[in-house]
Automatic annotation (TrEMBL):
<protein>
    <recommendedName>
        <fullName>MSP domain-containing protein</fullName>
    </recommendedName>
</protein>
<feature type="region of interest" description="Disordered">
    <location>
        <begin position="122"/>
        <end position="149"/>
    </location>
</feature>
<comment type="similarity">
    <text>Belongs to the VAMP-associated protein (VAP) (TC 9.B.17) family.</text>
</comment>
<dbReference type="Pfam" id="PF00635">
    <property type="entry name" value="Motile_Sperm"/>
</dbReference>
<feature type="transmembrane region" description="Helical">
    <location>
        <begin position="224"/>
        <end position="244"/>
    </location>
</feature>
<dbReference type="GO" id="GO:0090158">
    <property type="term" value="P:endoplasmic reticulum membrane organization"/>
</dbReference>
<dbReference type="GO" id="GO:0005789">
    <property type="term" value="C:endoplasmic reticulum membrane"/>
</dbReference>
<dbReference type="InterPro" id="IPR008962">
    <property type="entry name" value="PapD-like_sf"/>
</dbReference>
<dbReference type="GO" id="GO:0005886">
    <property type="term" value="C:plasma membrane"/>
</dbReference>
<feature type="domain" description="MSP">
    <location>
        <begin position="5"/>
        <end position="122"/>
    </location>
</feature>
<dbReference type="InterPro" id="IPR013783">
    <property type="entry name" value="Ig-like_fold"/>
</dbReference>
<dbReference type="InterPro" id="IPR000535">
    <property type="entry name" value="MSP_dom"/>
</dbReference>
<keyword id="KW-0175">Coiled coil</keyword>
<feature type="coiled-coil region">
    <location>
        <begin position="175"/>
        <end position="202"/>
    </location>
</feature>
<keyword id="KW-0812">Transmembrane</keyword>
<keyword id="KW-1133">Transmembrane helix</keyword>
<dbReference type="GO" id="GO:0061817">
    <property type="term" value="P:endoplasmic reticulum-plasma membrane tethering"/>
</dbReference>
Length: 245
């Protein structure tokens, strides 16, 4: 927006509006004349904005930067429409000295130039999508295996290490159970053999005492063999049950 003394760039103040965050926008004041030009920046909402510097002098054929900072806002305006305005006043300065309020007093016949600026709220720039970046970086990642559960397809990452460890743990548990059962059966067999021997001794004593009324050796051997067959059969059934489970 050109004036006779200063060219103001841009012609509008744009703020990428975000709640609870300070936002800044810059102005560039260009002096294309051969004179020193003093400027002053005013706003309709002085408590809402901070202007640095709000006054100054632009040397001939040079420029100056002005930063306007909007304070953090707790709520957005309706339809993101802002009614705030800025006014940039400029006047020829006698030298590069400090700016005084009297320099912009129109009542004293000074030629004060003014330029009005609107305030616009724009959407803040969107950050890159993290989903897109993660997809590009997952070129060698493990694929998800489809699993059908109640008619719905889910994707779960396969974990063969955990499955192998689980299977090995189950086999060790079953093996320990089998060993414990074998030890118990061995103990029972030893007890049965011991009882059989004790029974044989009693029979021998009885035979010696009663003569012809005792059992024969063949009958005793048959009784022991039958008991051993029963124990071996029970042992085989238990081992088959454990290995089959």
């Amino acid at each position: 927006m050109p004036t006779e003394l200063l060219s103001i760039q841009p012609g509008e103040l744009k703020f990428p509006f975000e709640l609870k965050k300070q936002i800044s926008s810059s102005l560039r004041l260009v002096n294309s004349t051969d004179n020193y030009v003093a400027f002053k920046v005013k706003t309709t909402s002085p408590k809402k904005y901070c202007v640095r510097p709000n006054t100054g002098i632009v040397q001939p054929h040079s420029s100056a930067e002005v930063t306007v900072t909007m304070q953090a806002q707790r709520e957005a305006p309706p339809d993101m429409q802002c009614k705030d305005k800025f006014l940039v006043q400029s006047v020829i300065a006698p030298s590069a000295k400090e700016v005084s309020q009297e320099m912009f007093n129109k009542e004293e016949g000074r030629d004060v130039h003014e330029a009005k600026l609107k305030v616009l709220y724009v959407s803040p720039p969107q950050p890159p999508s993290p989903i897109t970046e993660s997809n590009e970086e997952e070129g060698n990642s493990p694929k998800a295996s489809p699993v059908v559960d109640n008619g719905e397809r889910h994707h779960l990452l396969a974990d063969p290490v955990n499955q192998t460890a689980k299977t090995e743990s189950e086999w060790k548990f079953k093996l320990n159970e089998t060993k414990a059962a074998l030890n118990a059966l061995t103990e029972e067999r030893n007890q049965a053999v011991q009882q059989s021997r004790s029974f044989q001794q009693e029979l021998q004593a009885y035979k010696s005492g009663s003569g012809a009324g005792g059992l024969t050796d063949v009958q005793k051997a048959q009784g022991f063999s039958f008991l051993f067959v029963i124990l071996v059969g029970l042992l085989g059934m238990l081992v088959g049950y454990l290995l089959g489970g």
